[in-house]
Amino acid sequence: MTVTGHRWNSAADYDVLARRVQFRNAELVAGLHPRPTEPRTVYEIGCGTGALTEALVHRLPSARIDAVDVSDDMLAVAARKDWPDRVRFTQGAFPDVTTDRRYDAVFSNAALHWMHPRFAEVFTTMNALLVDGGLACVATAGRTAATDRFAEQSQAALSRLTGLSEPDPFEARRLTVAGAEELAGAAGFAVQDAFLLERTVSVPAEVRARWWVASGGPWTAAQVPVQDAVDALCSVLGEGEVELVHASVFLRLRKEEHA
Ligand SMILES: C[S@@+](CC[C@H](N)C(=O)[O-])C[C@H]1O[C@@H](n2cnc3c(N)ncnc32)[C@H](O)[C@@H]1O
Hints:
Rossmann fold, two-stranded antiparallel sheet, binds S-adenosylmethionine
């Protein structure tokens, strides 16, 4: 198994590791909608193996959910699970996927950061997908002092692995609350809620390293075998338990109604 271009080859690893962190994040994103019985049509961006989709199925009893993801690998893992008829998965790259449909709500967990540097277009397209007054409820990678510290460690591992001296490409994808609010306002949203949540879990160093690879890691660098990437990060993390810091910016945005 290798980390190659724009694919998510660690989909099975991701699905297992995601249970530690991402499923709880997904519950929080699903809970951002204040009136869960209202949405009839929902669009989900970057559904992956279905963590948020699952939370939406339980929380939004009346919603038809159109979920899109760019990765066949992630969608294949999602497809092996049981879903009600009101869920439909489609392969496609946001914001390039087009549809004439308008939705009552748009949701996304841990996916928008992969669309960097096209953030302005991503927020504008989310806005265009919504009916007037519709809500976008999303979480995307956040930046804190702890994520900066981890970036230093992963940069050391990354340059050892690839011979490249550029910083971990993931770091440019992180948003602060102020940065996210600015993007939202420029795209025609009223910000109803915006906050950053940093959570810390203690895990064995190898689990931390596997999470790094499964959730992106050096995937945009040269082709690197997964175990080499894990070993390289472990060599800078040390042995035993380490902190897995997960920082996300959460947003609830309302599409402004036309006069
Ligand atoms: C960290 S995973 C999150 C998956 C899921 N939302 C969850 O909560 O576990 C990020 C997902 O975004 C997808 N992704 C990345 N870029 C994308 C794009 N341009 N359009 C759609 N999906 C994308 C990846 O394939 C991956 O499945």
